[in-house]
Every structure is written in structure tokens, then in C-alpha cells.
Automatic annotation (TrEMBL):
Protein name: phosphoglycerate mutase (2,3-diphosphoglycerate-independent)
Chief site of localization: cytoplasm
Keywords per UniProt: Cytoplasm, Glycolysis, Isomerase, Manganese, Metal-binding
Statement: the UniProt record of this protein carries the keyword Manganese: yes
Originating organism: Panicum virgatum (Blackwell switchgrass)
């Protein structure tokens, strides 16, 4: 690296002093949305965050925390904690999701990783099962990725392959399933000519089979389990093409809601149930509609439906779908390798760093912040503290979580004078928001706000600087909405609760007695996002950011 003139030394900022303590606070799942009764941040008493928002307008702004701003394929993709903290720490946007899979397939790297080598152990005596959305929509999966994976696996020893298809009609035109099945059948027949026993084993429409999300309706996943794993379904056909054409001919049928079917041989036996010793890969790259199936495939302790038979399998996801749950534990494509993160630069420039959260988000403020890298850069200059999260209860039972304890640790670190940067994640808005319990989420938001006060009071005492932000939205909108933004109702007339992240922007607020009086947010950045925060933090420490970082959010006006 040295030969290219690379240096870890950051240039001094021409106008901003060094030596101020900086507190970086990430409120997890804290977006900005219209004020109504389903916006728990609005409903909750949050005087501290309100004062930041309603204080000096040049010290508070919104940034984008989803879609292309965090490296995801499209702006229909909600942000998540992993990609959010990657962007916050890295200061640049790295490919996530589909782009990452494309790169791994193109380079062949996918076949060298731990995940592929794990499932490969089943190739000799077992079947490789590929389960996912059959579509070129590019939202959850892509047909060309499935085609490449089929080719690659068969060239690397898979002798028996079964594909369990889910028809789309949501991200692509209804009826396009027929063409996708024809394409896939053609590929599989070419594999059979090469002596590989490859065929479609089951199917169903994505909204009725397998691809539920947010634990909305476990029956959807069970219908998939019965067809894919047990080889049982109400409809049996000799071929998938016949299945899709026949089921589509029913009145009011469409691709999204095709009933589950299995493919059977001449004796009426299912051609591809999942058996002991088999390998299973869920091929979707987008997480939200694979997580429930992943739980059913991976968890020994599972009570959402009766699985009847739980085969001993080797299971891997295309990607890891949930970094907090570490689900699935095996995956074919690893997160991006991110070099030269802001954390590493700052430590190498003498910034003594303290990072803290509770278990569920500790990895985000360390591992993901540091570019998907474990451990310290320099243990003489860093201290990471993990406070154990509550276990054995859902987070809405104790919605204050460990916010107070995290804030107290941060306060003590600031007042100790031993650290130049104190970085925390307050998980409440996200973890309680995911439970869908509105009252508990209101309590959670109030607790997070109280934690921010403790930290900002300490910053005030030492004459320091603060930057408060979030990684994505959640608690600010707890209801599903129609196109006009009105809450959707369920069959009984109640509101449909939204437990997921959102597409909303998130706040960034700066301040503190140590902040140079001329500092204000710039208004010349086209679409600022989370990745612009890293250069901003470097500036607050008195440094210029590296040239390839996304630009800083702040400028210094001459007094």
C-alpha cells in the first residue's frame, strides 16, 4: 500500500480545532415521518430530540438511510442496521444485496466461501435444494443468478438438484411465470443431458406460499414447508409448466396467489422432498420475505407451526438475512469487505475511542461500524463495552431495554477524559418497534430520549461536541398504509400494524459547547445520506476526511 503514496495520516482541518471530545449517538430505528397517532416518536415525550429539531435550523437536518444511499439495489429497499452502520462508519457506499451476489458469482468467489463449501458436503450422497422467487424482477431475486448458481453447483459436484419455485406477478407482470418456468425447464433439461438429475420439485405463488414477512401469517410458510420439505400439497402435477398453466386457468387465479403444488413421478410420488443429508439454499438476496422460512429451516426450537418432520440438512442463505439474529448462520455471499473505515483512520490519528451498546446492537456500533471487522484496531486506544440485553422476554415487555445503562457508561467515559470519541447505539426504537406494540414503542422512544439527555449533559460538562443520528426508520410509522397514506385495515376493521423498518429519512443533529460557532450544515449536497456522516465526524475531531469519502455535511462560515 505504501508504494502508491497511501498514508493513514489525516490532514488537519483548516478551520476546526482538534482536541474536543465528540459523542456520536445512533438512535436505532428513529426516522422522521408525519406526526400522527402511529408515529411513536411523535406520541412519546421526547423533549431532548424535540429541542434538537426545533433549535437552530442549521444544526439539524435529514439524510437518506435506505436504498441506493446505503448500497442497496433500489429505493424500494428499506434500510437496515447492518448496511446503515456500514455506511455510517465507512464514509462511502458499498454494494449490498443483489450487487454483492452479482460480484460473487462473476468472480467465482461464491464457490470458494465457507457457505458453499458447507453445502457442498451434501453433493456426494444428497440432493441440493434451491428455494426462492422465480423472477427477473430484481427486487427479491433474479433468474440469471439462479441460472448461474445451477451451472456453478453442477460443475462442482452437485449430482441431484431440486428447484422449489415461487411465482411472482408482483414485481413483474402477472402471467410472466409461464415464461420463467419454460426458461428454467430448458436449463434443467440441459443439465439432465449432462447426467445431472435436475428438476423442479414444487411451487406456489409468493403471497400464498413461503414468502410472508414480519410474522404476519405463518400459514403461508407452512404451505411452503409442506410442499418443499414434506413433498405434500393439494395439487400434484407431472411438470411445473403443466402446474402453472393449469392453476392459472382457474377463475381469479394469478401468479402471486397460486396454490402450492408438488411435482410427482409416474407412481404419484413427490420427486423432491427434503431428506436427511440434503443441502438447502434459499436463493433470494432480499431478506424480509426469507427470514420466516430461514427460522423454520434453521431453528431446532421452533413453535410457529408443526413441521411434522425436521430433516437434518445443511442450510445456507444466499446472504445472511439478519445480522442481529445471525440468521442464517451459513450463507453463500459474505458482507462487503470494507477497508479504511473512519474508525481505523481516527484511531491511527490518535483518537481514543469508546464504543458501547447492549448485546442486540453491540455488533453494529463495533463490527459493522468498522467495516464488518471484528476486534480492535489498537487496543491501547479503544474500549468496547457490551451490556447484556434482556433474554427470555420480547422487548416490548421491558421497552426501556438498557438505554439508561448505555447512557451511564457513555457519560462515565466522557467524564473520565480518557476518550476523544464516545460512540453508542440506543436500540429501543428499532427492537421494540419490531414487536408491533405501539404503547411499548412509545415508552421505548421516551427512554431513548432520556438516554440522549444523559449523554448530552456530559458533553456539556466537558465542553465537547455531539452528533446525534439514526441508522434507519421504524418507530416513526407503526401502521401499514395505502397509496394515499391512509392506514390499512384488516378483516375485522382493526389497523394493520407495521413491524418493519421504513423508507423514511433520519435526523442528524450537531451541537455542544465545543462546536466552532461558524459550523453549519451545507445545503449544496444533492442527496445526502448516512455515508456523509463519517467525514462530518472526522471534521468535528479537527481532521479533513480522505478524498474518496462522501462529502462532509458541514461547512464553517467565517464569523
Amino acid at each position: 500500500m505504501a508504494s502508491s503514496g497511501f498514508s493513514w495520516t489525516l490532514p488537519d482541518h483548516p478551520k476546526l480545532p482538534k482536541g474536543k471530545q465528540v459523542a456520536v449517538v445512533v438512535l436505532d430505528g428513529w426516522g422522521e415521518a408525519n406526526a400522527d397517532e402511529y408515529n411513536c416518536i411523535h406520541v412519546a415525550q421526547t423533549p431532548v430530540m424535540d429541542s434538537l429539531k426545533n433549535g437552530a435550523p442549521e444544526k439539524w437536518r435529514l439524510v437518506k438511510a435506505h436504498g441506493t444511499a446505503v448500497g442497496l439495489p433500489s429505493d424500494d429497499d428499506m434500510g437496515n442496521s447492518e448496511v446503515g452502520h456500514n455506511a455510517l462508519g465507512a464514509g462511502r457506499i458499498f454494494a449490498q444485496g443483489a450487487k454483492l451476489v452479482d460480484q460473487a458469482l462473476a468472480s467465482g468467489k461464491i464457490y470458494e466461501g465457507d457457505g458453499f463449501n458447507y453445502i457442498k458436503e451434501s453433493f456426494e450422497n444428497g440432493t441440493l435444494h434451491l428455494i426462492g422467487l422465480l423472477s427477473d424482477g430484481g427486487v427479491h431475486s433474479r433468474l440469471d443468478q439462479l441460472q448461474l448458481l445451477l451451472k456453478g453447483a453442477s460443475e462442482r459436484g452437485a449430482k441431484k438438484i431440486r428447484v422449489h419455485i415461487l411465482t411472482d406477478g408482483r414485481d413483474v407482470l402477472d402471467g410472466s411465470s409461464v415464461g420463467f418456468v419454460e426458461t428454467l425447464e430448458n436449463d434443467l433439461s440441459q443439465l439432465r443431458e449432462k447426467g445431472i438429475d435436475a428438476q423442479i420439485a414444487s411451487g406456489g405463488g409468493r403471497m400464498y406460499v413461503t414468502m410472508d414477512r414480519y410474522e404476519n401469517d405463518w400459514d403461508v410458510v407452512k404451505r411452503g414447508w409442506d410442499a418443499q420439505v414434506l413433498g405434500e400439497a393439494p395439487h400434484k402435477f407431472k411438470s411445473a409448466l403443466e402446474a402453472v398453466k393449469t392453476l392459472r386457468a382457474e377463475p381469479n387465479a394469478n401468479d402471486q396467489y397460486l396454490p402450492p403444488f408438488v411435482i410427482v413421478d409416474d407412481s404419484g410420488k413427490a420427486v423432491g422432498p427434503v431428506l436427511d443429508g440434503d443441502a438447502v439454499v434459499t436463493i433470494n438476496f432480499r431478506a424480509d420475505r426469507m427470514i420466516m422460512l430461514a427460522k423454520a429451516l434453521e431453528y431446532a426450537d421452533f413453535d410457529k407451526f408443526d413441521r411434522v418432520r425436521v430433516p437434518k440438512i445443511r442450510y445456507a442463505g444466499m446472504l445472511q438475512y439478519d445480522g442481529e439474529l445471525k440468521l442464517p448462520s451459513r450463507y453463500l455471499v459474505s458482507p462487503p469487505e470494507i477497508e479504511r473505515t473512519s474508525g481505523e483512520y481516527l484511531v491511527k490519528n490518535g483518537i481514543r475511542t469508546f464504543a458501547c451498546s447492549e448485546t442486540v446492537k453491540f455488533g453494529h456500533v463495533t463490527f459493522f461500524w468498522n467495516g464488518n471487522r471484528s476486534g480492535y484496531f489498537d487496543e491501547t486506544k479503544e474500549e468496547y463495552v457490551e451490556i447484556p440485553s434482556d433474554s427470555g422476554i420480547t422487548f416490548n415487555v421491558a421497552p426501556k431495554m438498557k438505554a439508561l445503562e448505555i447512557a451511564e457508561k457513555a457519560r462515565d467515559a466522557i467524564l473520565s477524559g480518557k476518550f476523544d470519541q464516545v460512540r453508542v447505539n440506543l436500540p429501543n426504537g428499532d427492537m421494540v418497534g419490531h414487536t408491533g406494540d405501539i404503547e411499548a414503542t412509545v415508552v421505548a422512544c421516551k427512554a431513548a430520549d432520556e438516554a440522549v439527555k444523559i449523554i448530552l449533559d456530559a458533553v456539556e460538562q466537558v465542553g465537547g461536541i455531539y452528533l446525534v443520528t439514526a441508522d434507519h426508520g421504524n418507530a416513526e410509522d407503526m401502521v401499514k398504509r395505502n397509496k394515499a397514506g391512509k392506514p390499512l385495515l384488516d378483516k375485522s376493521g382493526g389497523i394493520q400494524i407495521l413491524t418493519s423498518h421504513t423508507l423514511q429519512p433520519v435526523p442528524v443533529a450537531i451541537g455542544g459547547p465545543g462546536l466552532h460557532p461558524g459550523v453549519k450544515f451545507r445545503n449544496d449536497i444533492q442527496t445526502p445520506g448516512l455515508a456523509n456522516v463519517a467525514a462530518t465526524v472526522m471534521n468535528l475531531h479537527g481532521f479533513e476526511a480522505p478524498a474518496d469519502y462522501e462529502p462532509t455535511l458541514i461547512e464553517v462560515a467565517d464569523n
